[in-house]
Specification:
Layout: H1 2-5, H2 10-39, H3 43-54, H4 56-83, H5 100-135, E1 139-143, E2 149-152, H6 154-163, H7 182-185, E3 191-198, E4 201-212, E5 215-224, H8 226-268, H9 273-304, E6 312-315, H10 316-325, E7 331-334, E8 341-344, H11 346-363, E9 371-378, E10 381-387, H12 414-424, E11 428-433, E12 440-447, H13 451-461
Parallel strand pairs: 7-9
Antiparallel strand pairs: 1-2, 1-5, 3-4, 4-5, 6-8, 9-10, 10-12, 11-12
Helix pairs in contact: 2-3, 2-4, 4-5, 8-9, 10-11, 11-12
């Protein structure tokens, strides 16, 4: 019953216009008929008068109906286009006339202009947000109420691929399938903060909630704080090393010099042979240990004063392959299908590779191929791997701490220096025990240079 009462009203509205026109014309028709009756007119006059009254009426009624409904149709078409999101259609703006219809046209046009401007502003704002999201290093995820990742920027795609061993992307998958369910399970509050560690890298996360079209979405921001923490830690070590180096050099240099002088005096002194031997051995020990400490501090000074990298575009395969060849048949190299180009300081990066390869060969079983090196490419990342079959890492917390070493004659700066070199060109260096067998795996991640930089590198080499 209710649906029958809600039928479109255009026909009834138009019919009412015709009816009202007929009602307006009816007094004149009644007067004309009355006059004809009063004058006792002949039938020829009756036919003529009725013809003049009745025949023009349909045309006049149609003209009146069209004149009234035409502006309404224009207004309805403009409003319909606005409802469908098309703000380009406008009703004709009438400036030389006035009245209700003109006011209606002008108001509809104003509304369409406001909505069009609002839509363009929204589109431009969304483009800016998308561009910022694509270029920042903060991983950004938008998660739907059903826990499916609705949107992820490039940094988030990298992180998710890394967590899933480069075998999964966030397209139309739930956070549970992507092994990142912890980003939602940390807290049910509207805003929360959390942290986690993945593959030796430390992340800080923030979670917020927003409503869009009546649905609740989670906004997840994940920031890699490894580099910032490493830089802060490294700056602390540098300050400490400068102080220690200054104090030790000032103290040990005179001791070494005096011990050397006393050794020369003792050789020519008139002392019993046994006593002279003891004195000379003691002085030699003092000199030797002093020189070792001076060399030791020299190494740390080199770590603290590492120059800023002078980056150039370099092809990665020949660089890595030549470093592997320095260690003979103990090191095997798996060449990738393509040869990525990276922006690095070649001399410094070669030193970092040599440090890592040296550590791996010293820890390995010394068998041919006991150290396996490879390069993998995932999206725009080049991943270098150095895996050995040694005993593995016993104390991972102190891996990159200066002074810490497990070697008898080690200085403890190799890994710290390598990490500093890699991070200085925007890469990451991590070490972890192998999962497939006994041993350690060092992993370097570097951004692949854009295509234009690759062509420049090839042209410069020519």
């Amino acid at each position: 019953m209710s649906s029958s009462r809600k039928k479109p009203s255009r026909l009834s509205y138009e019919a009412s216009i015709v009816l009202r026109a007929a009602l307006c014309a009816s007094p004149a028709a009644i007067i004309a008929v009355a006059l004809l009756l009063h004058l006792e007119a002949k039938w020829e006059l009756w036919v003529t008068c009725l013809t003049l009254i009745i025949l023009p009426f349909p045309f006049m009624a149609w003209s009146l109906q069209n004149w009234i409904t035409s502006p309404l149709r224009v207004a309805a078409n403009v409003i319909s286009s606005i409802r469908e999101g098309d703000f380009t259609l406008r009703s004709r703006r009438v400036t030389e006339a006035s009245g209700t219809i003109v006011e209606l046209y002008n108001e509809i046009n104003s509304i369409a202009a406001i909505l069009e401007k609002s839509r363009l502003t929204g589109i431009e704002t969304q483009k800016v947000i998308d561009k910022i999201s694509a270029n920042i290093d903060v991983a950004t995820l938008i998660v739907r109420p059903d826990r499916v990742v609705a949107q992820a920027n490039e940094a988030a795609r990298r992180l998710i691929s890394s967590i899933n061993q480069w075998e999964s992307t966030p397209d139309h998958k739930t956070v549970d399938e992507l092994n990142i369910a912890f980003v939602l399970d940390e807290s049910s509050q509207d805003f929360s903060r959390f942290s986690f560690i993945n593959d030796g890298r430390r992340f800080e996360g923030r979670r917020g909630i927003f409503i869009l079209d009546g649905e609740r979405f989670d906004l997840i921001l994940l920031t890699d704080i490894t580099r910032a923490a490493s830089e802060q830690e490294r700056d602390s070590w540098k300050r400490l090393l400068r102080v220690l180096g200054h104090e030790l050099n000032n103290s040990i240099a005179p001791i070494s010099s005096l011990a050397s002088t006393l050794s020369k005096i003792a050789k020519h002194a008139d002392i019993e042979t046994e006593t002279k031997t003891d004195i000379l051995e003691g002085l030699d020990t003092i000199t030797s240990r002093s020189n070792n400490i001076i060399r030791f501090m020299g190494d740390y000074t080199r770590l603290a004063k590492l120059p800023n990298p002078q980056t150039t575009s370099n092809e990665l395969v020949p660089l890595f392959q030549s470093a592997c060849q320095l260690f003979g048949e103990n090191v095997s190299f798996s060449e990738p299908e393509s040869n990525p180009t990276v922006s690095i300081d070649r001399a410094q990066f070669e030193q970092a590779l040599i440090n890592l390869l040296k550590n791996a060969t010293e820890a390995s079983s010394k068998k041919p191929g006991s150290v396996a090196c490879s390069i993998e490419i995932h999206n725009d990342l080049a991943i270098l791997t150095i895996a050995d079959d040694g005993p593995g890492i016993a104390n991972p917390d102190n891996l990159f701490v200066p002074f810490y070493t497990t070697k008898d004659k080690g200085s403890g700066i190799g890994l710290a220096l390598s990490k500093q070199i890699v991070e200085a060109v925007g890469g990451t260096l991590t070490l972890a025990n192998r999962e497939d067998q006994k041993g350690c795996r060092a992993t370097i991640q570097l951004d692949i240079a854009p295509q234009n930089e690759k062509s420049e590198s090839r042209n410069s080499s020519l």
